[in-house]
Every structure is written in structure tokens, then in C-alpha cells.
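Same chain as my last thread, 200 residues:
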Amino acid sequence: MKKLLFAALAASTLSTPAFAADWQGKTYGQDAIGVYDLSASVDTFCKFGTSNSAYGLVNMPTADTNYLGGANEADGRFVMDIQKDDDDTVQAAIGGYMIGYAVCNTPFTMKLNSLNGGLKSANTTSDTDFIQLVPYRVGFNFDGHGASSQFLPAGDTIVDTVNEATAASANIGIVVPAQDKLLIEGAYTDTLTASLIPNI
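reply #2:
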């Protein structure tokens, strides 16, 4: 019995130095507190949502979302009824496009671009009783930012600069004022682009 007890004690004594040796020469900090830095990178973006609709108000222009990318890209179309039936001069027409939601996660600039600076006829005449370029006003609003309706020249127009991230609905309104000018036969066209551009 004494031999067995001695053997067990010897085995216990021999195993202890092996365990303790794993900790020899280790170094430690000043406390048992670990501080960890966490980070994530978010890309800059401005996007229009896909819940969009269009409407006509005065002389009921056909306004819809079925053009180019359609409502999925906030693209649309206005077929403006600008010909006054009784005398063939320019009559008023008003339409709008509602972008259900839009977002910029950084400061941004609201911009409009008109290709022609108005509804332009492909046909011409030297008779000044006719109008070749029918100007129209555009309103572009986004969460209280933007501008009231304004005539656009051809090219870019800065509407507003916003110094914070914003998410809300947006609206584009088109107003063709009446004019005592005759219209030339054929199509009057323009391409209007509304943009939210990150300030980078």
C-alpha cells in the first residue's frame, strides 16, 4: 500500500513541473482589459426609389412611368397637349412626376438638364407668328429642398445644394405657359434629366 501511495505521489510531483513550464517566460499587459477598434466602410450613393407615379393637371398631358427604365429607374414621359383647338396657338399644360422615395447618404446637389431649353420643333419657318421653341417651367423638390418652377436654358441648371444626407419623396412638375403664338406642324420635343449628385 505504501508503494502505491509513493508511486502516485511521485507521478503527481513529476507532472507539475511540466504544466508550470507552459507559463514560464510569459509577459503581460498592465490590466485584464482588451480594447478593440471596429470599423466598416459605406460607399457614397444617391438613388431614386421604384414607387413612382405620374399625373396630368391642366389640359391633361399624358404622363406615365413607361419609358426607358420606367418606374424602376424613376424615368417617365410627358405627352403635353399644347395645341389650343380653336386657334392653334400654345395652350397651358401642367403635369407632374412623383418619385415615391429617394435617398442620398451624403451631401448632394440637385441638378436639372434640358437638351433643348424648351419643347423644340424639328421644323422651322421665318414667319415670326409661329413659335419653334416653346419654353416650359420645371419645379424639382426633394424633402423641402429644390426650387420653385423655373424656365431652363439648354444644358445644366443647378437647382439646390444640400449639406446633409436626406431620404424622402421627390417631385418634378412641368408647366407650359400659354402663348399667343402659332404652332408649327410636327413634333415638339425635349429631354429633361433630374439628378441627385453626391458632393465628392
